[in-house]
Amino acid sequence: NAGVTQTPKFRVLKTGQSMTLLCAQDMNHEYMYWYRQDPGMGLRLIHYSVGEGTTAKGEVPDGYNVSRLKKQNFLLGLESAAPSQTSVYFCASSDGQGAETQYFGPGTRLLVL
Amino acid sequence: GQNIDQPTEMTATEGAIVQINCTYQTSGFNGLFWYQQHAGEAPTFLSYNVLDGLEEKGRFSSFLSRSKGYSYLLLKELQMKDSASYLCAVMDSNYQLIWGAGTKLIIKP
């Protein structure tokens, strides 16, 4: 039982390049989330999904796209990377809303030059 | 706007007790979470409060007062491994978590 995994762990991009971050969970959770974490700020929700084939915008969705084609996978795409997207990206999953705990992946460190 | 406030950094001594406070102003309230995050690692769940009062779980306890928009995390018998950041998060009316910036706890021998 690996929990939540993320690929890659670290990436350097040049401004304007695109990339996809992959999140996978083996807990059969319905809900999945993408957050970014920046120094001095709380985690901020980028996009989330309440089930296979569904996605919704979070607090800071601009510049990102997501897809949830399979229940266990949640992909985050950067269409044209900008230095402001330098951050640590965390994926999380949960079995539902409310009191349900969110389980986090190990994070992807992204540096955009 | 929505706001979660917690101290940026705290220092405590091994074996002692420390209280980390969190105040919040959110649109709606569906519970408050505390997570622990070691440097360079993922956040991990510590506690959840939705009703007023104290929840105890081993060395860790969490308190909530909804009328005051206030919570605290109490850590007893501090160990060096407790050195980490502690994140307070409130679930708002849309069932989205609003996160504080975290409190970095430094434990000294």
Give the SSE layout:
The complex is a heterodimer of chains A (113) and B (109).
Chain A: E1 4-7, E2 10-13, E3 19-25, E4 31-37, E5 44-49, E6 56-57, E7 64-67, E8 73-78, E9 87-94, E10 103-104, E11 108-112
Chain B: E1 3-5, E2 9-13, E3 18-25, E4 32-37, E5 44-49, E6 53-57, E7 60-65, E8 70-75, E9 84-91, E10 97-99, E11 103-108
Brief account:
The complex is a heterodimer of chains A (113) and B (109). Chain A is mostly beta strands and 113 residues long.
How would you describe this protein?
The complex is a heterodimer of chains A (about 110) and B (about 110). By secondary structure, chain A is mainly beta. Chain A is about 0% helix and about 50% strand. Chain A is built from no helices and 11 strands. In chain A, the strands form 2 sheets. In chain A, strands 2, 4, 5, 6, 9, 10 and 11 form a 7-stranded mixed β-sheet that branches. Chain A is globular, with a radius of gyration of 13 Å. Chain A starts with a strand and ends with a strand. With about 110 residues, chain B is an all-beta fold. Chain B is built from no helices and 11 strands. In chain B, strands 2, 4, 5, 9, 10 and 11 form a 6-stranded mixed β-sheet that branches. Chain B has a 5-stranded antiparallel β-sheet with strand order 1-3-8-7-6, with no helix packed on it. In chain B, strand 7 and strand 8 form a beta hairpin. Chain B is globular and about 40 Å long. Chain B starts with a strand and ends with a strand. The model of chain B has no long low-confidence stretch (mean pLDDT about 95). The chains are: A mainly beta (about 110), B mainly beta (about 110). Chains A and B meet through strand 5 and strand 10 of A and strand 5, strand 9 and strand 10 of B.
Largest sheet of chain A: 7 strands, mixed
Portion in helices of chain A: under 10%
Mean pLDDT of chain B, to the nearest integer, reads: 96
Largest sheet of chain B: 6 strands, mixed
Number of strands of chain A: 11
Question: For the CA atoms, what is the radius of gyration of chain A?
Answer: 13 Å
Compute the number of helices of chain A.
Answer: 0
Number of E-state strands of chain B? 11
Biggest protein-protein interface? A-B, 21 and 23 residues
Which regions of chain B have little confidence, pLDDT < 50, spanning 5+ residues? none
- Distance, first to last CA of chain B: 40 Å
Question: Assembly type of the shown chains?
Answer: heterodimer
Q: Between the first and last Cα atoms of chain A, what is the distance in angstroms? A: 36 Å
